[in-house]
Every structure is written in structure tokens, then in C-alpha cells.
Design a protein that fits this description.
single chain, mainly beta, SH3 type barrels, Porin, five-stranded antiparallel β-sheet, 27 strands
Length: 377
């Protein structure tokens, strides 16, 4: 009986050792079948931000064996792992340039400036000068841009000028953006819709809320140098004077312009000729064709982080008319831009004798507010 009891004790002792041995196997777990896909690269990120990329060869619940290209086989304890994801185009190794400074703007407007050290599908690790290393979740990121002299000045992020071709009522000869559709409205009554075929050519439709007058146009841009551009624009359309009487007035325009500058600031000089050709009817039997020419200068200069000062000067000598305006363009949003300003219309009325202008006359100045808006469609 005593010997039997001793055998039972020994049997229980060795059985316990066997159970313990099964609960705590050796660290060599290559024989355990992994639930991860074979021959597929995974991205493993640990709690301290370390990133491992390679094929997972085994997984025993406590640790993972990953075969990396740069470090070979490595065991990683599961309690130190933050995430494991199959490598795709989005989780592949960061495509950001090393030793380059980037600007990250989050959805709440917070800005981070520094070098991007790692990038995966969930977050970005950026090393900033003032706050050190920071993980930023990708869902909270609004934009990521490489820091340049154009988008970062005096320690401040400069909002890009998404409507670089526009001042107030006029445009410049800067290059267009391919396949972009921009609408420009004045007082929400006059509208201009422009579609850029490429960087050099854009076509447009111009009308009012009443759909008359209405016309089509073509604009071009040709680079002379990095900051010098030439452009030609043509427009044609009609103004219905009397739909009942059948009288239509044709409108035509041809202009040229030169622009020096870029999206941050530019100056444009231009000239053109316009014509009004009336189709006669009994109602307007005395109507005659008119041809006029004009010269203009316009420009814009960035004033702050999200605003630009703009001006325009137009003169039509044979009509004794001049238009001078200044305004402020707001550029905080990528798809809309508002312009507020003041326009002064200056006209000269000469005294006439037998149909001929004489000296003297009076100058009239009319001042009125300007409201314009550009938006992308």
C-alpha cells in the first residue's frame, strides 16, 4: 500500500511537469502553424513606434516570428505590438522623402512641422522641433505638404492660391490646371464658366442670370520663362435687344496680355478691341456698328496667410471711360474664394457742336462696392 501511494505521488508529480511543459513551450515556435497568409508581407508596429516589414512565419499566441529583409528573423512579443496589417499600397513603407521637412495640417487646423519618420495606414510619426516625436492618426489629417518658400513664410503656413488666374473682374496669363472647371460670378448676376483643357488652353461660357447677353470664349497661356507668360483671349456672342422685333446685336472681343509673377503675386498688362455689330430692323434702323479699344493693368499680392490684395485699372480712350478698383481676395478654402472691393467708374462728358466734341465738359465719378466669388465645380 505504501509503495502504491508512492507510485501515485510520483505519477502526479511527473504528470504536473508534463502539463507545465505543455503550457510553457520553448521559444522555438517555428513548428506552430501561423494563421497569417503565407508569402505575404505584413507591417508590424510596436508600442514604441518601431516598424517591421516581412513575412510572418509563426504565431503561437505569445510571440510572432517575422522574417524581415533588413534584420532577418525576429521574435516579437505580442504584448508589445500595436498593430499588424497586410502590406498594401497604403501600408507600404513611407514614400515621404527622408531629411525633408513637411507640414501636416489636421482637421481642427493644428499645424505640425517636421520630418516624417514613418508612415502606415493608421498614423504618421513626425519629428517636430518644438514637441519632439508625435504620432498623428491619418483620419485626423487634412493635408500634408513638403515645406517650400512658397507655402511657408515667417514661421507660418501660407494657404495656396487655388484661383491664381483671377483678380477682380479680369484674369491673367498664368498657366491653367488641366481638367479644372472654375466658375466666377460678379454680384451673383454675371457668370463665367471656364474649363481648362490643359495648361495652355481653356474654353468658357459667359452670361448673366437672365442668360443674355451670352457668349463663348477661348483663353491661352504660353510660358516665356518661369515667371513670364503671354496670353491671347477671344470672345463672341450676342445681346438680344428686341426678341419681338427680331433685332440681335453681335458682340466680339480679342485681347492680349502679359503676366509677370506666380500664384503668390503677379502683375498683368493687357490690351484689346471689342465690337458691337447690330443686325438692323425697322425698330433700330438708326443703330450703327461700334468698335472700341481698351488698355488695362491688374495685379495681386499676398497680404497674409489666407488673403491677397488685388487691383484693376481699365481705360477705354475712345469712350472716355476709366475703371479703377481695389479689393481683398480671401483664399482660406480650396474650393471657394470671395473678393470684396471698391470700384470707381470715371467718365468724361464733352460738349458737342454740330456733332463734334469741343473743349470743356465735365468729369463724373461713380463709386460702388464690388463683390465677386470664384468656386470650383
Amino acid at each position: 500500500m505504501k509503495n502504491s501511494f508512492s507510485l501515485i505521488i510520483l505519477f502526479a508529480f511527473f504528470t504536473g511537469l508534463s502539463v507545465l511543459a505543455q503550457d510553457h513551450p520553448k521559444s522555438d515556435t517555428t513548428h506552430i502553424k501561423s494563421n497569417f497568409q503565407k508569402k505575404k508581407p505584413y507591417v508590424i508596429i510596436t508600442n514604441d513606434g518601431t516598424e517591421y516589414v516581412g513575412e510572418i512565419e509563426s504565431d503561437d499566441g505569445r510571440e510572432i516570428l517575422v522574417n524581415t529583409k533588413d534584420k532577418g528573423e525576429i521574435y516579437i512579443s505580442k504584448n508589445t505590438i500595436r498593430s499588424i496589417e497586410l502590406q498594401t499600397a497604403h501600408t507600404a513603407k513611407s514614400t515621404f522623402q527622408k531629411k525633408k521637412t513637411y507640414i501636416i495640417v489636421t482637421n481642427d487646423g493644428t499645424e505640425y512641422v517636421g520630418e516624417i519618420e514613418s508612415d502606415n495606414a493608421r498614423e504618421i510619426l513626425i519629428n517636430t522641433k518644438d514637441k519632439g516625436q508625435m504620432f498623428i492618426p491619418k483620419y485626423s489629417i487634412k493635408s500634408i505638404d513638403l515645406l517650400t518658400n512658397e507655402n511657408y513664410q515667417s514661421g507660418e503656413l501660407i494657404t495656396p492660391n487655388h484661383f491664381q488666374n483671377y483678380y477682380m473682374a479680369s484674369t491673367n496669363a498664368l498657366p491653367f490646371k488641366r481638367n479644372e472647371v472654375i466658375a466666377n460670378t460678379y454680384y451673383f448676376f454675371g457668370y463665367s464658366f471656364n474649363y481648362s483643357l490643359n495648361e495652355n488652353v481653356a474654353i468658357g461660357l459667359h452670361t448673366t442670370f437672365l442668360c443674355k447677353p451670352i457668349g463663348i470664349g477661348v483663353k491661352t497661356s504660353f510660358a516665356v520663362s518661369d515667371k513670364d507668360f503671354l496670353g491671347i483671349e477671344m470672345h463672341g456672342g450676342y445681346l438680344s435687344l428686341n426678341t419681338v422685333g427680331g433685332n440681335n446685336t453681335l458682340l466680339g472681343h480679342l485681347g492680349v496680355k502679359y503676366t509677370h509673377g506666380d500664384a503668390a503675386g503677379s502683375v498683368t498688362l493687357g490690351a484689346g478691341i471689342g465690337s458691337i455689330a447690330a443686325a438692323f430692323s425697322s425698330t433700330y434702323a438708326g443703330t450703327a456698328d461700334k468698335v472700341g479699344y481698351y488698355f488695362y493693368s491688374a495685379g495681386g499680392k499676398r497680404l497674409s496667410k489666407g488673403s491677397m490684395g488685388v487691383y484693376e485699372f481699365w481705360t477705354a480712350p475712345n469712350n472716355n471711360a476709366t475703371l479703377v478698383g481695389v479689393g481683398l481676395r480671401l483664399m482660406k478654402k480650396p474650393k471657394t474664394s470671395f473678393t470684396f472691393g471698391i470700384l470707381n467708374f470715371i467718365s468724361r462728358n464733352y460738349s458737342t457742336y454740330n456733332g463734334t466734341s469741343t473743349s470743356g465738359g465735365s468729369t463724373r465719378v461713380q463709386t460702388f462696392p464690388y463683390l465677386g466669388m470664384c468656386f470650383k465645380i
